[in-house]
Amino acid sequence: MKTVTPYILLIGAALGMGAAYRMRQRPEPEPAAPPSATEQVRETPTEPEKDEPLVVVRKTAPPPPKPIEPPEPAEIRGKAPAKEAAPQQSTPKAVQRRPRPAPNYWEIAARRFSQKQDMLNREQNPDRRLALIQSMSANVRIDTPSTIDWAMGLEDPEERRVALEAINKNALVGIGARIHMDETGVPRIMDTTVLSAIDSTGMTQPGDYIVGIENGEGEPTYFKGQSMQNIVQQLRGQAGTEVNLIMERVETDDSSKSVVFNVPVQRSMIVVQPPF
Description:
InterPro entries: PDZ_sf (IPR036034)
Region (Disordered): 24-102
Organism: Pontiella desulfatans
Strand content: 15-25%
Protein name: PDZ domain-containing protein
């Protein structure tokens, strides 16, 4: 046993040296690279310390982009909206035309009468023709001579009779004088109409004042202070009736002198003619 021991020691020493030699010949392992930021985020501590709270760091996605809001209306901001520039177009020069004069009352009435005449020429129904003739007879207040000539030119006797009766009904009846109110407040004769009833007396002239009228008993009614509408209504009446006028004529050489006189006038149809 004493002789074996030294050999065992020698073998163990040789084995130890060989192992040491092999260990020197192996390449040393390269140091591991430090973990990246992404890997550090993914790692979590396996066991947190007791004094520190558990914190889990997670990689979050970037926030979504904010939606683009529409611009605030200009009315809310207090600014006028920007006007888009209109495409420039070449506009033709406007042709200057002379304005037509507006048609007067007489021209419009003559045009309407002509239109009704065309309707009468096309109408075949007897009742409708008579109704149209009565409507056309009202033109006697606008153009008396031409309306009477039209009525007398109707071929059918019944239609002619209806037209003349309608003319007598629609015609204006009075003394045949055009009057106006001056600063005195009394109506004054401007002129007289064709076939004037007051002109046929030979007692009046333009410029005379119609002071009032007298009734059958001689009681006067004075026109001063009355409206023109009331005065005209009293001067007009049925054809053939008589009205007694109170007239006043002022002397031209001396306005302080005047003559008052009465003129009896028999009312008749007032002949109206257009000024053309």
